[in-house]
Structures are given as C-alpha cells and as structure tokens.
Amino acid sequence: MTIAESPDLVLTSYVDGEWRQGPAESSDTNPATPKEVVATVSLADAALAERAVRTAAAARAEWRDTRPAIRGEVLRKAADLLIDRAADIGRDLTREEGKTLAEGVREVNAAASILRYHAAQVYEPDGETYPSMQDDVVLFTRREPMGVVSVITPWNFPISIPAWKIGPALAYGNTVVWKPADLVPLTAVHLTRALIDAGLPGGVLNLVLGKGSEVGDVLTGHSEVAAVSFTGSNTVGRRIQNLAGAAGKKVQLELGGKNPAIVLADADLERTAKEVASAAFAGSGQKCTATSRVIVERTVAGDFVDSLRAEAAAWMPGDPLEAGSAIGPVSSADQLRGVLGYLDLAERDGARAVTGGGRAGGDLAEGYFVEPTVLVDVKPGHPVAREEIFGPVAVVLPAGSYDEAVELANDTPYGLSASLFTSDLSRAMRFSRDSHTGIVKVNQSTSGVEFHVPFGGAKESGSGHREQGKAAREFFTESKTVYIGY
Ligand code: NAP
Ligand code: MG
Prior knowledge:
single chain, alpha/beta, seven-stranded mixed sheet, five-stranded parallel sheet, 22 strands, globular, binds NADP nicotinamide-adenine-dinucleotide phosphate, binds magnesium ion
C-alpha cells in the first residue's frame, strides 16, 4: 500500500454560511495505513458550536416558510450531486473509515436515494381532519417543524446515517446543527458541500467539526435546540437523554445492538451459513445491526460451525481500496484495542476460536485489521455473549429447542435486530411476535435495512422512537390541533 500523506487539506466547520476554522487541530487518518494523514481537521470549540446553534435559530423562520417543493428540490439536487461525485466521495469515505471501496461507493449512492425519498415526502399529507362534535367547526391537525434540530452521528455509516436524519429534518422545514463523528470529517464535508452546491441557504445547515466532549453539551443542552437525533453508543446516548430530555427537548436515540441469528435444524444450512457470515463479518462487523450471536439448534451445531468456518474464509481482510478485498480494517486504534480485548478475555475464560481470533498479520500488520472470528465454547453469561463487540466476531451458542433459542436471543439488554433461519412458517410467524427487537427478519441477515420503512431498536437499543420512512415525519415535526369555527 502506498502512503499518500495529504495534511495540506484542512477541513473546517461550516457555520453561518461560511467555512470557519476552530482553535485546535487534529489529524484524520487512514485505519488501513495509520501513518497516512487523509486531512488535517480544524476543530470547533464550544463557542463555534454556540454560534452554529444561534445561526440555525436565526435561519429557522425563513426555512420553515420556504415552500415544501423548494425544500424538496434542494434535497433532490444534492442527491444528483452525490451520484455524480460517488466515486470520489466513496474513496474518501474508505480512506477515513476503512470499509471497502465498493461499500463506500454503495453507501454514497444509498445516501442519494435516501435524500430523494425525503424530497418526495414533502408532497405527502401533513395532517388529518376530524369530524367536530360542535356545529360549524372544522377540526384538523397539521404537522409543523420542530425548529432547530441537533444531529449527532457515528462513524460507521458516515454518509447514509447523516442523510437519513438531515434529509427529513430539512424536508420538513427544520434548521440543523450537525456534529459528525471525529473519525469521518471528510465525508461530512462532502455531504455538506453537496447540500450547499444544491442551493441550501447559508445557516440552514451548520456543520460542527469538533470533539463530542467539547461541543456535545452545547448541541444537546442549548435552549434554542428543540430536538436531538443521535446515533451512537449507549454511554453517550444516555448522557444526551439525561441532559436534553431533562430540558424538555425531543430526543431520538439509536444505540447499540447484540443481534442474534437463530439457526434451527430445519433451515437451509448452506444458505444460512452464507447469510450469517455476511451478517457477522461484512464491514468488519461494525454495524449496529451486525449479527454477533449465532444461536444454533444443538443437533446441527457441529455441522453448522464447520460451514460457518468455511464461509469465514471468504471474509478475509485486505486493502479496502483493492477490488478483491472482502473487508477492510476496523476504524480506529480504539476499536482495535476493544475488539482484541474481547478476544483475549474469551480465550482466557475457555472459549475457542475455530477460525480467526486476532489481528491480521503480513502486509496488513500496520493497519487495524482483524481476522473474521468464530468463537465456540462460550458461556451464555460471558461478556462476549452479552456486550457489543463491534468487530468481525461471531459467538456461537447452542440451544436445545426453538423456545430455548428465543429465550437466549432475548436475554440481553439490547433489542435492535434479530434473525431466525427456518423452513417452518409457523415458527417464522411466531418469531415475529416473540423476538423483543425493533427489527425481525426470517431467513435474512440481521443487517441490511431498507430506507423507506421504520428503523430502530427496542429496550436499551433506542429511545422508543423510530426513524426513516414515514416515521421520520413523526420525529422531525410536531402536531398542532386546529379548531376553526365559521
Ligand atoms: P459514540 O462514541 O457514541 O459517538 C457517536 C457520536 O456522539 C459521535 O459524533 C461523537 O463525537 C458524539 N459524542 C461523543 N461524546 C458526546 C457528548 N458528550 N455529547 C454529544 N455527542 C457526543 O459512537 P461511535 O463510536 O461513533 O459509534 C459506534 C456506536 O454506534 C455503536 O455502539 C453502534 O452500535 C452504534 N450505532 C447504532 C446505530 C443504530 O442505528 N442503532 C447505527 C450505527 C451505530 P466524537 O466522535 O467526536 O467523540
Ligand atoms: Mg480517520
């Protein structure tokens, strides 16, 4: 791999219609070749974040009163620009996040589709009429923008998650302050540029490139902020809920997962092994919906582990910019430490890696590459069976029956996504009821969701809201009830 250092590129925040420097700097680096500086980041401080919120507040009335068709048109044009620029943006996304180039480009195209969807939503009904119980009264509801919305996003889907929050926020007439994860500032600048180039007025979207610990409390606690939409870890999410929720703001949290795939003996085991391997290892397992527990009916567990081990061979890491690579590195030194820590703990406590089990060597030794790993002989209560690892690791747990499998699947504080592999229709239907998760799938990977349907988690995976599809309108607007006597 070549090291093309480009610290000359300086990324800045976009606040009040201008690109603005902050008082500190950091480096955006490539997790495949950590010495490579993708860009220098000029970091915003709390004062710049405060200015971003005030700007968004000042822009609120005019954007709210801009015709919905014009707001939608900006999103549609931004989508066209993302498609035109997908190859370049996808490459930059890969260089700072580490997923493969094919996935990076696919994600940029997905972001464009998401913006188009929300652009079209401005033509949908925005209220209901009711019969009044009084004479000569018209009674109806209308949905209105929340006002200033703070959007805080993680690094693992650095353009599609922001698109599915910022798209509907803008479509429904809100102004936005956006803080992307510090690992992915260049992708954030690309999305911001596409929206500006599409004609979004200055002040309507403000990008704050700053550390969460420095700017987070301003974005979530400021009196001018009406709503906060957050995707990320449970620790940060609960902190935001405490701060913003206590101040009466609307808060949407999309948090972690420990997603199970149940494999019953009557499943098509060959096809299932392929699906489960892809669900566990694609994107180096750094998806909130990745499969990390594989609960297998005991009678087929041995054979299934053999198949899964064989499938894992198709998910070996490589240079993410090279066409043949199945997965890239994990996204940061912290991620690498975290994943390897779980693997060490599992080994120390008697678990066995039937494939993988550590950091990749050879040409990849410099980067944060982890081998796809299948762990067996894990006790159900062990941290690797309960906590989110966020790496390419599948933990196999045997179960004696459907009922025992479901009990194990639900035995976690998380509740994002769950899969059942079976050829039994009634079990499939039962599982759609029995699984305590926001997303249930049958004979499909726990990951991979469509953007026009609600998305979100139960239990500690979320805050009870859903996002995407029409659910986005619920969050980014509030309902007003109107009585008109005549
Ligand atoms: P994270 O550490 O919680 O960071 C998420 C965002 O919060 C980042 O922009 C971060 O900024 C910011 N932040 C940090 N401290 C903050 C504070 N005090 N106030 C406000 N914002 C703050 O999560 P991550 O490591 O980026 O992402 C991985 C996690 O996201 C995993 O747990 C994964 O399951 C979850 N996730 C969930 C979904 C879902 O839809 N359910 C989707 C994807 C990922 P900095 O980067 O500057 O720290
Ligand atoms: Mg980086």
